[in-house]
Every structure is written in C-alpha cells, then in structure tokens.
Design goal:
single chain; about 450 residues; alpha+beta; Immunoglobulin-like; 6-stranded antiparallel β-sheet; 6-stranded mixed β-sheet; about 25% strand
C-alpha cells in the first residue's frame, strides 16, 4: 500500500478514546488507502479511511469517508487543525469546515505517527449540498498536475483546472452549464467589474473563505484545494468548504516567509490570474465585508487563538509530537524542538495581526512591492511608505526547487530594468522581476 497511492486494503479498525474506551470498532467493509499529492511523496504517508457504514468518530458527525492527514510538512502538526477549527467558528453554513481530531495511528501493530483525523471533503459536502440533485454542483480549483487522469475538468489558465466533484460523471447539459458558470467567474475575477449578470457570487461565503486564506497566509490558497458549489440553473457560486492549511502561518515550501505578504499568484506573462483568489479578493464588496468581519469578530478570535488555543493544543499533543519526531526523525525539522516551532508560528501570527491591524483598521500608509518570477508566479508584500523593504527576499528564496533559480540574487526594477538595491526607501508601489541566472547580464547591486 505504501508503494501505490491507488491501492486499497481491507482494514479492521479499532479507535480508542483518550480514556482507553473503544470509540469505534469495524464490523465489515472498512478499507484504507493512500491520499494526497505532494504529501504522498513524503516518507510519512497520508491515508483515506472508508468505513463500511457511517459512524461519528470521536464525537464528530456521522460519515463514511475520513482522511488521516500526516501533516508531514508541519513541524508543529497544528496548522491544519487550528485553521479548520477557526473556520468552523465563523462558518456561514454547516459544513464550511470539516470536524477533525488528533490521533496516534498504528498499522499492523507498528506506530505510524501523529495524525489528524478529518471528515473528508466528500462527506462534509453532503452537509450543505443535495448530492442527489442533478442541479447541484461542486468543483475544486487546483493545479492541473494534481488532477487524476480520468477526472472531468474544465481548463482554466495554464496549469490550473476546475475539477468537477459533483455531479460525476457530467451529462453534456451539466457540463455546458458548469462551463458557463466557471467562465462567468473567470471573467469576473479578471475584470474591473464589481459584478456580472452571468453568475451570482455569494458575498458572505466568499468574504469568510478568502478572509481565512488571507489572515492565515495560506501559501496554497491561490492554486490548490479551493472548493466552490451551488446551483447549475440558479448560477450561484458559494465558496468552501475549507481545506488544506499545512502550508500556512509562515510555512512555505520556499525558504522565505513574512507576515506582511498577501499571497497572489498571477500568470503575469499572459496577464491572467491563475486562480480566482486574487481577482475576487480585489472586489470591493467582498473585501469590505471581509475587513468588517476581521474588525468586528475575527480579530478577537485571533487574539484568543494566540493567547489560549495554541498553547492548549500544543500541550495536548506535546508527547505525541515527540513520539512522531522519533518515528520520523529529521522530516522537515528546522527548529531545535517542538516548542520552538510552536513559538515561531505564534510569533509569526502576532506579527501578522499587527500588520493586518495597520493595513485594515488604522489604514496606515503602505506601498505594495510586487515580485515577478520567471515561472510566471507573482507575489506581493507590503512595506511602510518611505521605508526600505526589510523582508524583501532574494529571488532564490521564493523559487521552487528545480526551477534553476538557486543562484538568483538580483531583483530588477521593472520601471528601469536596473538592479534594485534593497536599502532603497520605497515611496510608491514597486514592481520587481527576476531572470534566470544564465540570462543575467547586469551585475549585482
């Protein structure tokens, strides 16, 4: 099973509560198999658990399909649970965020590590979507490379696709209707219009969903694990459910993070957003509602998260995290201890809240620094007007492995095509770009 994500095996499952009582025991039909994309390539594997009958595990809602998330990128193991729990508290509808709980996983008597047991997105969808209706739909926006070969997809910008999760398979009529809805949101996201007659965007769910992505600075938000649903005939588009936050709160694949960034991946060569995230976040109605939610509710919840919940959750899993680290030594370990990793994550979010307060509540003067990379990704960060940008990364720090940017150290000013000195005070919005080292003909500043 560990060699093939698509392989499934019969499983006899026993789930024990913290007090040792049996919470669940298999009767018949339970199966386990692999899951994930980049996470499946890691030594510590994530799994899908399919029960023969619905069951409410550890006091959570009844479901047949459950995910065992390995959280292998996250040294704290906390990010997915913290964000999913947070999102469930501000949910605009039932099922906006799946329930989840930490478990120690043993397979065939062998300890596999600390995992997060989650209701799968397939079953959480049934809480808000009539999956027996031919008029209901759900799609996932994701990178094309993550889509299975037999999946039904609607191509978006290069490298992105909308995968039909329901209904599946699509009839010709359903596909045409879904293509029209996707095209309508595409045009809205890429235009200066505040609304379009083609589709109806549910402002409340979009504002809350995008607020979760922005507040927790989810690296994957623009290009993976983004779910949307609604009515084909009504042409409505709701945002959610929430999913996939292991690369949030200052944790990226790349060796750079700053609390003063807004993730916005955009295909700048073709002038197109590669997802709906950036374009819809810029719509005044959605953004203003999100900022109001932050001011009136989310900010207080964020303070409670930092002061109370993170310490409590860290205490609850500290022993399990130590066992997990012993089982998987060195796996994405960049801190001297579990506690140090938690402290670093917490400090990042405190700085993040200071930045968001200044940007949204105090309306302080910030300028936007845009970084364009040869792989066509675009990132934004903000710096106080009139000051140098202290957290401007090197191009190599925001490039992914294998892109040939390991030695790239120079940003070029798009207005002059001259090397940019990071010590320069920034007084207005600035666009920088990087080129592959082989193409660099200008010296380092």
């Amino acid at each position: 099973m560990l060699a093939d994500k698509d392989f499934e095996a019969d499983a006899a499952v026993t789930l024990y509560a913290a007090d040792g009582a049996v919470d669940y025991a298999s009767e018949a039909g339970d199966r386990i198999g692999g899951r994930g994309n980049s996470t499946w390539k890691l030594p510590k594997k994530p799994f899908n658990l399919k029960l023969g009958q619905k069951a409410g595990l550890l006091g959570m809602g009844d479901a047949k399909k459950w995910s065992l998330l390995a959280n292998a990128y996250d040294e704290t193991n906390l990010r997915n649970k913290l964000v999913l729990d947070f999102a469930r508290e501000i949910a605009p509808y039932r099922g906006f965020s799946p329930e989840c709980a930490f478990v120690d996983l043993y397979v065939n008597g062998g300890y596999q590590g600390l995992y997060l047991l989650c209701m799968s997105t397939k079953d959480v969808t049934k809480l808000f979507l009539d999956t027996k209706s031919e008029d209901a739909y759900e799609i996932e926006l994701t990178m094309s490379v993550k889509v299975e070969e037999d999946a039904e997809t609607i191509p978006l910008a290069p490298g992105m696709a909308a995968e039909a999760k329901h209904p599946s398979p699509l009839s010709r009529s359903q596909r045409e209707q879904l293509e029209d809805i996707v095209d309508g949101v595409q045009r809205l996201a890429r235009s200066g219009e505040d609304e379009t007659g083609d589709v109806r965007i549910d402002t409340e769910s979009w504002a809350r969903k995008l607020l979760v992505e922005v507040v927790f600075e989810n690296y994957d938000a623009p290009n993976a694990s983004q779910f949307f649903w609604g009515s084909l005939s009504g042409r409505t588009v709701y945002a959610g459910p929430c999913w996939d936050y292991d690369l949030s709160m200052g944790l990226y694949y790349v060796h750079w993070s700053t609390p003063r960034a807004i993730m916005a991946f955009k295909d700048w060569n073709l002038g197109q957003d590669i997802s709906w995230y950036h374009g819809l976040w810029e719509k005044p109605e959605i953004r203003q509602r999100a900022v109001a939610l932050y001011r009136d509710d989310v900010r207080n919840r964020l303070t409670d998260l930092l002061d109370q919940r993170i310490p409590a959750e860290a205490d609850a899993i500290a022993d399990a995290a130590a066992l997990d680290a012993a089982r998987w030594p060195g796996l994405y370990a960049t801190h001297e201890s579990f506690r140090a990793a938690v402290a670093d994550m917490t400090a990042f979010m405190r700085d993040r809240m200071v930045f968001l307060d200044a940007l949204w509540l105090d309306e302080a003067a910030f300028v936007q620094v845009t970084m364009k990379l040869p792989n066509t990704r675009m990132l934004h960060l903000y710096t106080p007007a009139g000051e140098p940008c202290p957290d401007l990364p090197l191009p190599c720090d925001v490039s992914l492995p294998g892109e040939g940017m390991e030695d790239a150290r120079v940003w070029l000013n798009a207005a002059t095509d001259e090397p940019f000195d990071p010590a320069t005070p920034v007084t207005e919005d600035l666009v920088l770009y990087a080129v592959l080292p082989a193409a660099e003909e200008t010296p380092e500043p």
